[in-house]
């Protein structure tokens, strides 16, 4: 009995010392989506080598974009959030955690870009080159679930936008989305997980971020990918939290993220840099595509409109499609 | 002949379901050599994850042990109104999905929850992970001690009381020695459950790298990062811990078991 | 007897401690969960619960869990029989192994199954991302339950009855059906209920090996997790309350069955 009490006290003491050890100099907490983990692992030490970053220590958390936004809203203390897409930051604006003007600053709050690509099997046996090829019968498409994954929402809008760009009407493009999702065999929670699934051998084509595909290749996965002619420019936002006690340092970190040093690290990790000078350096690595569009073009209306129209969990177009797809497979 | 047939079916089932998969994980962990596997479990992130898991267990197990003995005594020795409900609540963690446990804690301690404004950070920090682990490993000591307490009866305790022993003396000299092995077995079960918890902790941890990633979350994270050797190597460590737990269970198990 | 009453006086205090602990650890979080689920009223709750994919997940989960429980009833009894009535070298090791799924973290269980029965399977068996994989994961984590509830009963069983039946000319099957099985039934039921409860809520092992495809391979625990991640807290809470109610119901059933099961030999 006595031993139990002693053990408990020891445990509590250890826990207390853990907590104490955590309070050093300035500590920035970065809450990010899953894919840039390796990039930030290099960027943070680079920041710490600058005068602005001296004596700054970092806590980092990575997970799917929606999950991270929810966590921050529910109380996960953060100074900087780096998420997959604008609406996830807007979710925090709604909760009063981020300044509504976050996307009015330089670069509209964006820190990196990428594009939606097709990851295919060696030799592309199913001959998938364009969005219409994804609709062919017998083609298994892998994409995350748009209601949990920011990456999936980029995929959906890339598909829809590409068909609109090809001249399809809104109704036809929605029809195609339905047919596309009828070919989807697995919907993981996050972009990283669907990359996992594809790499493990499931599916004929994966809709993914270009930087994810490059990451997988760098980790020895034998993957081939192609950038379709029409595809969407993925823009990943970063924002500082309003109630961060270290706003000055956090903003300095944000500025650093758009410095040539950080942008080159991002580029080496497979992200398209937003800094024009660095983008020019890496032009050969990141081919420009004639049919590239953004979420604000093609009459899509930007994320505010798109989020409501397509991804409202009850009335959105994708909610309807998910239900229809589920219904027809039962 | 029938006996042999049954035996073969049983062994084949166990081989296909248990032994096969586990052996493969051991194999895959060391496929690229002992070096990479060793590095995978001794790097900072991995070490911290294991330490965190053990720390959480070091709090959860004693707490549930003390609770377990006290609760068993209350349930058996002093029937009270609502005993059935208490019994059911104690057993509830056995039947509850870990995700539900995590969600419940999230709703209680989150920013929009009842206990939102506490001075100590609970959610997305160590306290909620400890609470989640205590929740899921709650029943074991109680369940092991209650039947034994029932069995041994109160005669000896009453005799000691008539001889003038105090409550504490009775407990130390008579009750506890009788339930000692049940408590030990319950502690082993509680420890196993605490070390292996994943679902509830996945919801409440916040996944702060090097801070709130337990061993199980670390395994998942390595798997997500295409570091299969890392994932399998950490799994091997957890599996070895599990086997150590199994051995303790075998040694401590009361009369149940093989003839 | 002053000392005895002093001993008993300690009990209300310990009872208070027990109730406080249970409230803080179990009851309060579950109360918060129930409150959140019912915050939008009965209609809101019903709407959240009866979403098409939520219902599909629930149906799939219940069906798979029931199937798994029944398989365990048969195989678990068989394994218990072999462990009690048979003898062979290494039986002690096999007996200890039964508890492995209990001691192993669920996510490691999922990884081990994925390694052997997934896309990189060395034996060419790939059931990952199918409904079969759900059953596989559930079978793994529920293995110990029926075995461990049947074993003690088998141990205590008086062989004389069986021998008597045999001497009267009954076949082995008849002996099993008429003499042994009725005695094992309470133990089997108890184990089945536990296995069912575990399977219904299983998360860690399932989430690795299935594909989270709504309506196809998504179980309730994964559905709840997904709802939470897409910020539909009300939906997650509502579905959780349903699972909670099912678990509670199973517990009551176990409680009833357990009263029939002898736990230890009497001294």
What does this protein structure show overall?
The complex is a heterotrimer of chains A (330), B (259) and C (267). Chain A contains 13 helices and eleven strands. Chain A is of the alpha/beta class and 330 residues long. Chain A folds into two domains: 2-112 and 235-281, D-Maltodextrin-Binding Protein, domain 2 (3-Layer(aba) Sandwich); 114-233 and 289-329, Periplasmic binding protein-like II (D-Maltodextrin-Binding Protein, domain 2), CATH 3.40.190. In chain A, strands 1, 2, 3, 4, 5, 6, 7, 8, 9, 10 and 11 form an eleven-stranded mixed beta sheet that branches. In chain A, strand 1 (26-33), helix 2 (37-48) and strand 2 form a beta-alpha-beta unit. In chain A, helix 3 runs parallel beside helix 4 (86-94) and helix 5 (150-165) crosses helix 6 (170-182). Chain B folds into two domains: 1-30; 33-252, MetI-like (MetI-like fold). Chain B has helices at residues 2-29, 34-42, 44-77, 83-95, 98-109, 126-136, 139-152, 155-162, 167-196, 199-204, 215-224, 228-252. Chain C is mostly helical. Chain C has one domain (40-258): MetI-like (MetI-like fold), CATH 1.10.3720.10. In chain C, 78% of the residues lie in helices and 0% in strands. Chain C has helices at 2-37, 41-49, 52-85, 91-97, 100-103, 106-117, 131-156, 159-167, 172-200, 204-209, 220-229, 233-258. The longest helix of chain C has 36 residues, at 2-37. Chains in contact: A-B, A-C, B-C. At the B-C interface, helix 1, helix 3, helix 4, helix 5 and helix 6 of B face helix 1, helix 3, helix 4, helix 5 and helix 6 of C.
* Separation of the first and last Cα atoms of chain C: 28 Å
Quick one: CATH class of chain C? Answer: Mainly Alpha
Distance between the termini of chain A: 58 Å
Shape of chain C: globular
Largest sheet of chain A: 11 strands, mixed
Report the β-strand fraction of chain A as a percent range. 15-25%
Mean pLDDT across all residues of chain C, rounded?
84
CATH architecture of the largest domain in chain A: 3-Layer(aba) Sandwich
What is the CATH H-level superfamily of the largest domain in chain A?
A: Periplasmic binding protein-like II
Round the Cα radius of gyration of chain A to an integer and report it.
21 Å
State the major sheet of chain C: none
Number of beta strands of chain C: 0
- Cα radius of gyration of chain C in angstroms: 23 Å
Total individual domains of chain A: 2
Number of helices of chain A: 13
Low-confidence stretches of chain C: 1-7, 261-267
CATH topology description of the largest domain in chain A? D-Maltodextrin-Binding Protein, domain 2
Can you name the CATH architecture of chain C? Orthogonal Bundle
